[in-house]
Records
---
Amino acid sequence: MNKVQFEQLDETLYHEKLENGLEVYILPKKGFSKTYATFTTKYGSIDNNFVPLGETEPIKVPDGIAHFLEHKMFEKEEGDIFQQFSKQGASANAFTSFTRTAYLFSATGMIKENVETLLDFVQEPYFTEKTVEKEKGIIAQEITMYDDQPDWRLYFGIIENLYKNHPVKIDIAGTVESIQDITAEHLYTCYHTFYHPSNMMLFIVGAVEPESMMAFVRENQMKKTFEKPENIQRIFPDEPVEAAIKERTLEMSVQKPKVFVGIKPEAVNLSGPEMLKHELAAQLAFELLFGRTSDFYHHTYESGLIDESYSFDYSLENGFGYALIGSDTQKPEQLAEEIQNTIERAIEMWPFGQTDLDRVRRKKIGFFLRALNSLEYIANQFTRYAFNEMNLFDVVPTLEALSVEDLQAAFYTVSRESQRSVFTIVPPKKDSE
Amino acid sequence: MFQTINVAKGVNVHVNKTTQFKTINFSIRFKDKLTKEKASARSILANMLQHSNEVYPSHTALRMVLDDLYGTSLYMDSTKRGNEHIVTLNVETVNDEYLSETGVLEKVMNLMYIVLFKPNFEDGLFKQSIFEREKSAIKERIESVFDEKTRYAQQRMLEHALPDHPASISPNGTIDDVESVTNELLVAEYRTMIEENEIEIYAVGDIEPETVASYIREFFHFGDREKSIAAPPLELKKPEEPHVREFEVMKQGKLHLAFYTPITFKDEKFPIMQLMNGVLGGYAHSKLFVNIREKESMAYYVSSSYASQFGLLFVLAGIDANLEEKAVKLILEQLEEVKKGNITDTELDQTKALLTNQLKEALDSARGQIEIYDQYMELSDSFEPDDLIIRWKNVTKEDIAAVARDISLEMTYFLSGKEEDSNE
């Protein structure tokens, strides 16, 4: 077991890569009575085209399958695994993102029992045609629920606009139609390919004793046999840097229009420290341009062009990413134009210097330290970073090393007009009511 | 957990000195009675005070100072509990032990003083342009509820069931009441808040109780104030129309049921009602989840929640628009099972285990500690989480069945797509 100390942060992280390839991290937190654990596979909605384990030919699977699989992991021959966690006083849950599927629990007691339940239920699949059919009704309601949420539709609408071929444009849960094609056999194929321990990470944080917990996990894994790990071959289509669709509008039951300007980043093939540096630099650049202290924010908020729903974000993964800026607004066209003009002006003449950088850097460091009070943030973000070969605990030193030029350079990769798109949701026209 | 120091009549400082967190959290709560007019005015007020002030006269200036203080988070919110309206100043700052700089804490305390005591006045009134802007911000916030159909359906249901009752009054007030707030009225409301409201001040982090108390005494000068008279119990009138259907352009049907129970937060039997809610629909092992989601595959979400301040129990489900009747029938069947005492040992143990876990987990966050303490203080001055856990432990199935038998369905509300669209 390795031990890494982060003195300034007063944290110690324990790590071991087990024989079967599973990466295990344990972070004890002083004073906490709660423990939070995530068991995550590097498998999400974008992994829909791959060579199944032990085969040679690539296959394509129905949209929404990673999420469907996540649902079905909870059902076992002897019943629902939620029941087991509840008996052990744990709240369990799971989520599927573009790139990850995570199973998790939080509890204040019976931690070893709960860790065992977590490991065992994710490592013992049980799918039948009957249970798969039964789940379709539940997931159809989940999809319908999201269909009625304008903020979700806005988010997916802009991603669909930005991407031409990449599967990030496919809704994570699929559609009511696409999930009808899912079979138990599909689930087993995906499971065997992506749920191998060598493609997974266990993160335990909270009231936990690292030595004995690591031994416990090791022992649990030694009892099980797995096939020899293979490199997973995932196939992604070519994707142009330009946004696929410039502009689209959707009618929905909303009280006022909503708009997002999306920008497709150029730098989507990064990983490790380079990716961390780029992502943080771009985030600080967007903070300066569009954050609460920016001229843009001041001007658009005071004039009523944006409201409390305003948000901006820059996020990067391997193969895709996006910057999003938007708000509820009575004047979506004007707001989209102001956003684009702000970007244009920053390209013509970069307006920020050292003092500006120092200020947003402090803000970001403070945010990060506050986030370290959250066990959920630590486990989920650490895993996300690690899957991209970055280390969450490098955030502060990386921030401290950034220069104004780094911010500028990162910003230029997300700034060209051809990379941008606008998606708008408007209330239904009066006469169609 | 918290040490309490009284700094003036009606003003208390509660501090939990702990090294559990990397930050120090403050929460200053101003409590007044809940009416639509008060809620509307006080929501604007909360926005005004967090926007800018005499020392930092623009939003940008204030936010820059916060960024420089290592992204200290400072915001005000407007919430309600029972028949109280609460305006809170929330501040979280990094413990400077983790920084290469010291003195951050004092700057932050000074900033809290400025936010509360140096409003952005011009000739004795709030700056008119900011006043107008924040007035519309609150109206926009109220209007935006419509976009989130689950929240919207819940609000509509409460408005139909209990009009003008604190249960249905939004902590942000109403569009009309916000509209009618004048600058003069807002200044008066501000004075009332500072001079007359009961105030609870919380601090959680590596900080001495006396440090906070003496700072408050020295700089904030809160005078004595009368403790507001304990409000009479809130009566729940029967809804005029017990079954309401409304339509919007949407795909899913949102079913919201309201049940009344005589047991409120202050009742001896409150812990039993918490367990009853858990057995019925609070969790993934609960009867509603197991039977309506897992067995019938009818819903993705179906759950119950207990609004203990009012004695209300809600059941919410997202279902196919054609299945309202079936869903209501199934939900009532599950409640009937609880009333009959058809609860397994496992269901009872699971619910006790999860309630206990939830309470302990909540106490692992500074905000959670403040919320729980602030609420339970109403019951006793010396709240101990373990007392509640022991009370849950002693509850039997028959206790739960007995409180369930006093629950009555009073309102069925269903929001779905247009009638002509629902047969697709």
---
Amino acid sequence: MDNPYGQDMKGRLSDEDLSVYRPSVGLIKEQLSSNSDVFFRDITVNSAVPITLTLVYADGVADQTRLSDYIIKPLVAGDGFKDARSEEDVLTRVREGAIYYGSQFIRYNAKDAIDGILADGAAIIFDKLCVAVTFDIKGFSRRTVNEPAGENIIKGGKDTLVEAIRFNTATIRSRLKTSNLAIEEFTVGRQSKTKVAVIYIRDITNPMLVDALKKRLSALSISDTMALASIEENLKDVHYTMFPQFLTSERPDKICSDIAEGRVCIIIDGIPIALIAPVTLASFMQGPEDYTQNAITVSLVRIMRYILMAVAIMVPGLYIAVMTFNIEMIPTNYLMAIVTSRQGVPFTIFFEALVMLFAFEILLEAGLRLPKITGQAVSIVGGIIVGQAAITAKLVSPGILVVVALSVIAGLALPNKDMVNALRVWRLVITLTGGIAGLFGIQLGFIMFLYSLARIETLGVPYLAPFAGIDSRSFGDTIVRMPMKSQKKRPEFLKTLDQER
Amino acid sequence: MESVRVNLFRKAAIPVLAVLVALFTKCGMQGELGLLPEQPEHLFLVRVLGVDKSSLGEGLLRITMEGSGPTLAVGPGEPASGKVPYIISMDGHSVYDISQRIDTTSDLDIHWGHISFLVVGEDIAKEDINKCIDMMMREHEARTSIIIFVAYGSTAEEMIKKSNTSGFLFHERLEQLVQMAGEYSVSAKVPLYRFADMLSSDTCAAYAPCLIPAEYVYNTAEMDKDKQGINLNGFAVFKDGRLAGYMLNEVARGFNFAIGKVKSTSIVVKDTLGSNVTLEVINSQANIKPLITDGKPSVTLEVSFQTNIADLQSTRSIFTERELDRLRLAQEEEVKKEVQSAVNYCKSLDADILDFLGAFHRTCTVEWEKMRGDWDRIFPALDVNIIIRSEIKRTYTIREPAGGKE
């Protein structure tokens, strides 16, 4: 068959143009001419008459063993094509399974063929027919499954997601064996052409929620997806907020648990972290060990986390407000102790607090950027030695050091880093409002904080659910964790198709 | 277009709300909204305020403040164990006037937020107590829960200055006294808001606890010979805002029984051998029942209390039903005498601090309306029937007195 679209098409074509041309060797060579890792090789099929096909593969992406054993060998040395007399016959045999490799796709347009070569590893081009058969023989080295770095637990699975999307979807499927588990793939990124999988359970998850997410993914027009934020920030509902709108996890068991609850998971090829939506504030207060420990113990810990959240954002502001505007609120003996410790300190409490908050932010950032051992040394030197020296030199008072340290450590004790980062900013906001306007400023800052939480919806679910609204049923897994036996229904705010767990 | 307006309104809502609240809470107008508010180490925290008549002229007041301030903090060269009182005295026209003058003539910024006690000198209490408390009720920094005292036979200044020792500062001693007021129940703490309520009440007179100069007994660590101790004993009774008299010792305890405020005390009665038996009162209740018979008002004052046997001086066991019953009657008799003396004293001053008129107000409103204008005449002659009920609750497991034979 002649190629009706011009075998010798010259020059680079856009994706749209490529999608209307059929694949041919000339066209594909032209389009991939600047890719030194893509090789073209003519192979003669072991057929009744000499038939030459073109094998194209991306070196490094394609697993050479699989390429040789499962694709070249059947074509060149196998018996399956012995009676073939034309490319049509060969293609028919390939369709019938003469190349005994499962993951193969027949491509009728040049764009799909090129994408298949680059993403999956190899293709055979039937130049006269203008058809390509691509083979998924990706074989580049994959990171071994380690223990989760950020969500390690004692009693529970020790595996994590890896960079390869197919491995991750397989891991999830191995845990959720239901036929209703849907794994829908999208290709995102004009340059990266990254596979993004949307995973949910068809008869549980609210279809409106899935549709909304799929619609956003389809409409996504970005260059690449090398960073998680490139997808996360484009999918979220409210853009100008510091609070995270997707839960991230690297633990397959946690991801599966959320999918089974009626949430949707997004896995991106090349990123070993899954995005989970929709989420609420309560989702970010749940630790990885919450479901492996005793319910009463976990409930107490959870209550403590909410207290810690309040401590993290409110304490420096409250301390300044009370110490500068409402000192009558402090018991006299405590006040005198603080006043005594402040003798000789030249700065106001407000300024002291800002300096200390800034100092702690420096320590945190330095600790993150430096190697682990050096980071610890910086924390010790910064926290203890410099802190003590600053007190002795009367640059700061011990009171403010304790207050700011308490607030920072309380923030770091929360389980979700994205939430911790948001609270760092809010701590500063409330410190400023408290320092400027006292308790009135604290109230104002807190109202702003609540407002910024209340205005967020993730895929239509209010961020403050179930606290805002009448949804008592969903309280069982928020501030406290009720025993599993009593949590028989899925959260109401997720509006799942099947309410029963 | 409509949604743009809604969004604009939402965005503007918080700042507008903030400004409105700032204006209506006076934050903006008072200049309290600022980047450089006063730092606590520059404040003089008043702990005790004493108010007396000034010797400089008629109508003038003299206030004495004991407090904690910047120089009170232990610094270099100061003995670590010593406590230095920080006392300021000044004369002026009113409490506020004087405090303003102290603010402007010294480097101290007076802060009333930590005041705990108000001591009123006897002279000014006899003249008009309202002069001393009005500013404390108005001042937004001051707590209305501060405890008021009257300096018995003394000025507040004298009491504050003489009672500061190296062992205790005056306010620390007052804290102790207030904490222990219920131990013997010859006095009680009266917060300023309660005192002010009584002063402005249509139905009752006011009372305040008394501070009495006492032998120096509490500082055993270091005796300050030129100093004096203070005790909390009895009540100063006010009639129409003026000090009318004092109830002390058992009369004051009788008053506490009459208002049901005895938390703990001891009653000593005799057993059949004439030896002392000490009974520890563990609680008390009182109930006033007003009655009008043929247009004549009367009051039944029911007092009930419970005791434990605390101390026996007899060598004979008293733990028989008959003997316990006899002891119960004896303790009731003792308490009745004290309550009666308190009632009689109030009648003699024509000061209804027991709030009998209030009881009529609550139960016989129509008759109260007729009586209220004439209460000064009715109260001294009021028929008060005192009923005492008691119970000896615990005899404990030691049945025999020390030295008693099995």
---
Amino acid sequence: MSGFCGQCGAPKAAPDQRFCQSCGASISTAPQAVTSAPAAVDYVDYAVPAPVAPRQRGASVGRILGTGAAVLALAAGGFVAWQVLGSSGGADSPEDAVRQFVTAAAEQDVVAALDVVNPGEVEGLDSLYEAARDRAEAEGLVGDGDLVDALDVTIDGLELDVDEQGDYSAFVTVRNGDYTVTYDPGKLADRLDFVRDEFPDTKEWHGDLVGLLDDADLERFGVSTIKVDGAWYVSAIGTALDSGLREASASSDRSYVPAASDYDAIGADLEPVVGKDPEEVLDNLADAFFDQDLDQILANFPADQVRALRPYVDVAEDLLADEGVSFDGGITGLDLETEDLSGDLVKVVIDDGSGSVSLTDEYGTSSAEGTVDGRCFEGTTYESSEDYEDYDEGRVCIDGEIVDYTGVDEVYVVMRKVDGGYQLDPLATAIEYATRAVEAVPSSAIDEALGELCYEVQDYDETGCP
Amino acid sequence: MLWVAQASVPWTRRGAFSSSSMLDGARLLRSGLVADAAPRWTSLVLVVVPALGVLVGATAGLRGRAMWTTRLTTVVAVTVAFVLFVHNVAGADLTRLGPGGWLTSAGIVSGALGLAWTRGHGDKQ
């Protein structure tokens, strides 16, 4: 039987064809009970208009699309999980680390900056940052936005030179780059009105970064990067020491860097020295100090925190030997109290203790003895050389204004629980003192500082200053 | 997919998340490096939106009233998360939104339009 599709008019290809090849409409091959117009449409099943075949095709297309979307979504989910759970921070190269850090610093993006800074050197700094920010907000020194809303910094065309120092360290300097700083007085915090009054107009400064560093006498300034667990990080400690040593090398006959520095020590495994209790930690540290064993001193601190210091151990030991310096002394009678802080940190308060230290070099001997008694230090100092001798004694206590301005009313260090014991954590100690000071400094001191700033900004006119 | 993509690009034009992504932030929180400012579990907050994006994508082929309601809930949840992020990350300033912020909002709009369309075509029944 031949004929045409009743839906689109396409010719039927075979007598037993059930669906139109052109439009997919259903074609009934069953005998028809048609009472009218039989000749033209005798094979079209008007009684069953629902197009079964197209719906199946639409459903299968939908299934394919749905399956594709599901696969794509699961792949995206895998990517998200890998990003959060599988990867660590840092950058693939020293150049990338510095580039990300500079960009993040210019844009005031704390997250991006922390991502490429050696974790051991910034752990715990967030608490100080939060304390400073809360205090600044409470004093009306910042708004809800950025730290310095009124200044917008952009860096363009940044080109860097990389001086590779072994497998674990690289010193990165700026070869080229432009900066733009935009000042918008409208975004200044209310308490800085005097700055807005003095500089009411929007300003923009452009320049090249190399020229800026030259003008600031920082020609040799660069950023030190180190490799930790396969990723590159900016090291604040390394940057300070490397830049300083390069400056020192340039201004003396002696080369401190890079020949004298063992940069591969950054990647070396160092057996940590852990005290079973806080008192043993301080004893171990004193022993290493008086033995002048700098490697052992570093082994007493959290490894990641002092990793960037390791290359300079030889430099320091050479310097001490050149100057004929030797130390002697010890600590006794420690009475310590501990208090748990957040995480693995423990505050160790020194209630009582005595110590002495003497330093001998080619010029003579200096020595000091002292005791800690609660809030008070008491001690003597003695210096002698061929033509000079001096003796002094004194007592100083933490009270009055010191407590008011710093919030510090006891002598303490912060230790970290490591491998079932303790290590002294210099960074956590500094952060603990600084956080207390930020929270304690009285509003009157901030008023005073703002008054002095106002006085300077207004060309030594104190009219209207706080 | 917009909700997944937004987590991989900078969310703002200035300040935190202007040169880093939500996933960078989640990784940083999870590392415990900023545990004093925000505990580790808060990293989950930053991956809520991409996770919901994955959920919507993975169930794209499913129909019915229950799925429609699930998608409606998802769009509402992402909208709430978006408002919270804009407030906390961008200081409630829409002019500070970067690509991530706009991708999220585009995802919300397209999600809402999709819900309206499927409701009109009987998907809710």
---
Amino acid sequence: MSPVAREIRRIVVALDDSIESRLVLDEAVALAVRMKADLAGLFVEDATLLNAAQLSFVRQVSLSGQAVEAMDAGMLERSLRGQAEAIRAALQRAAVRHKLTWSFRVARGKASVHILAAVADADLVIMGKTTPAVTRRARMGATARIVAGAPRGSILFSEPRLRRVLGGPGPVVVIYGDGRHADDVLGLAINLARAAEKDLVVLIPADTHDDGRATQANVSAQLANAHVRATFRLCVGRGCDTLVHTLSGHRGDLLVLAQDSPLLGSDTVADLIERLESPVLVVATDQAP
Amino acid sequence: MPVTPLPADKLRLRCDLSSLTFETTADLKSDEDVLGQDRAFEAIEFGIGIDHRGYNIFVLGPTGAGRHRYVRRIVDAKAASEPKPSDWCYIHNFDEPRRPKALELPTGMGRGLRQDITQLIEDLRAGIPAVFESDEYRNRRHAIDQEFRDHQESMFETIQKKASEKNIALIRTPTGLALAPVRDEEVIEPQAFQKLPEEERKRIESDIEELQRELQQRLQEVPRWDKDRREKVRELNRETTRSAVTHQIMALRAKYMEFGKVVAYLDAVEKDIIDNSARLFLEGEQEAPAALPMAMVQHDGEGPRRPELQFRRYEVNLFVDNSSDGNGAGAPVYHEDHPTLPNLIGRAEHQAELGALLTDFTLLRAGALHKANGGYLMLDAGKVLMQPYAWEELKRTLFAREIKIETPFQSYISTITLEPEPIPLGVKVVLIGDRRLYYMLAAADPEFDELFKIAADFEDDLERTDATVEKYAGMIAAIAEKVEVRPLDRSAVAHVIEHSSREAGDNQKLSARVGTVTDLLHESSHLAGLADRSVVSAADVQGAIDLRIRRADRIRTRSLEQIERGTILIDTKGSRVGTINGLSVLQIGGFAFGRPTRITARVRMGRGEFVDIEREVDLGGPTHSKGVLILSSYLGAHYAIDRPLSLRASLVFEQSYGGVDGDSASSTELYAILSALSGAPIRQGLAVTGSVNQYGEVQAIGGVNEKIEGFFDVCAKDGFTGDQGVLIPHSNVGHLMLRQDIVDAAAAGKFAIYPIATIDQGIEVLTGVAAGDRDSAGDFPDASINRLVEDRLMALADARRRFGVSGEGIGPG
């Protein structure tokens, strides 16, 4: 059976008003243009913030440390509405310029909940890896970590400030799995590689060299008519360290893998995302992507 | 003794072909293409040679006299023997960017310096990023950034840890940070918080307040840490850049060690590059660690500009390049054909960038004064005066002896302007203009004489002698060779010389307007070419003259047509009392032609009034009125001296509507009055020109050739009778250079030119009746014109006397 390059007809992009989020939006627009997909923006008004604003004794300290003021709930609501409007306008401008079909929705609550809910009617969800965090020592924001661990849909974790899916010279790297969704993951990677006009590097988990060769032959046959230039790499080791080391050699612009990829070993996909600079597309395995 | 018509050979002074000893101008070797300008030449050479302030030259004279050519020749010759002046560059002033510095360099060195600096920057643009990409730099830079990040993260982690221990979360808000109580990793909702025991609520609030204070204190320390970090990064950048720059600059410093200003400039370049290396050479370099929250990223230094613009400040603007490749040998000679203010004193161009007009020292452009500095600047005076501010700025610059680039509307335009360091000026300015301008400037501008002490006055014409004719032939040959027209044969040269006399309006002169001669040679050669002749003949020259007249004579033709059709009444046959043909000249553009006008006079008893009808209706000019008053005086003094002049005479130029001036018709008017008084009819086949004085002497007038030709053309249309001609002042005989057809007609007895010295001579020719001289008794002969006039005047006086006795007045007079 040949992996059919999976169509991506609808992309949901999770947005806030940060500069990082604007870059994620640019990335999403570029992908939607290449994929000829509809683009839906999702802005979540953070419930944590809104709750905090309800507490009369909570104060807001400016980043310069020069000003301390009460958190005015009304002001916060207006501020969030303003942010939503600003990002909606940015989405609209980009969509009109590129003739994309677009929509925009504002939700209130926990960002992770709404993002995971959006998976249901999207072929691909894109979100920033570092959505607002107090510190950057941890590469991955709490929301991203929650979403990465949830068993749903196809979610692209992007950090455009460091590496972009499109525009860079690196290939699309896909970890081929042995699960029932292996072909779906490969199909998604093929589609992205084609759309981005990139080469494809297929990492094949293998316990032995012979096993790996057999799988490679199989995958190679499947890619015969995929119209993408592919190379193969056998991976015997397991775990984040091994993967990071392997991937750094390929300098890929995108890693595509199943949520339960055997190459992760005992590590989680969130651990891997946190350590990689490149964007990562995680395909959940408890349901068909 | 009656006046006889002039012989044909007096009507046009021929150029004797036998005096021309060549076949064609190709045989002549002469490079003298300007003649008769010795006075002007001496003045120019004197002016060029004298090296003192204010000894600039104003070359005045008629257009086409060869002023530009000759001045250029003298100036070029002088300049060739003088040294080339220095090169001038403008460079960036690192202390005051608005005031670019001027750099004087030995001739040719400007190019070298510009090239060296360009090369230096190219090398550094490649070399400096390389040192910034080295492991050493990256490691040191990473360490600095990491130190800052660690500091910052440590601070946040400490607070986060303390907060977490007290079930408090540190959260990001749209504009800052906040601390809020949490339960099960969620911020406690207000209702839930209110349900907490009061003691716990107070504890939470107290904890938050304490943490908040600490957070605020720590946040206030961040800018200081960041400042330290940036300073460390800057110092690292400086140190790194210095390693790449110093040895390259040192090589240039050694090369230009004799030139202190260049060395100082190189020092400034080195310092600036070292201080600004990161911004200049590293794309996207902000000196900020990548992991800083965006709100804390400090953008220091200038705003973003395109990379190529950042390097402009190091360029050398080779402002005046006097190297041999860029200019001819010797001192510069520059002719500015369009002397606008910016073209004279230089300008700062502007570039539009993001809607604003920007400029810098690289956009400074040299003006004519810069280009001619150390040499000679030639300008057309009329053009300079026509350009706003140009004359004033030229004078100011010559007085100040330095060139300062300024925009006249500088203070009115809201854009970036420069004040470049002025450049010392040493230039000889040669202004070329007509006499009117010279005299106007001399009269109206008190500074003019101080700055233009030398006037070189070009002549309009030169004496026509055998020697000058020979030189003139040589000049024609030189021009023909220079402008590359066909050679002229002897007859053609003779014809050009004769035409030159005609242009001069004097058969004893030759026109000095070589421009006109050049045009005639072009046109004659063209006609010869059309006729497939390799040598220009007299026929070609005459053809060119005829075509030139043909092109210009539309109005003359219409005028003749009106006379022919009787619309304008001019008789060329028969005789009439008190009616005479006067002659006038119309100048339209560059073409002048003569036209006859009927002048009539009527007399009656009066009190000696002469009514000049032209003057009465404001169509007569003052000179014309003067002529009419002279008639009155002549009559009063010449006839019936012992009686009051008791007539009222009226004079009119019939069918003249455009105004009359000049006194060249005063003799004509007198003849008409004498005819009217004497009753002797005037021959209408004759026309008259000439002014008269109180003694009845006929005086010279201008345009004699055109006037004769004008009446001749009318007679030719009307038909020759053999009784036609023109009376001209005797003193104008030397000006006659008439058309060949008139000369031929005169030779054939069809048309006569009478040289008239006195009114008596003229009236005799016009009436065929002797004027008559007073005898010993003081009486004029019977039946003479003068007798008839006197008798009439006496009769009028008697009548007037009788009229007065009878008590009847004759009006207030």
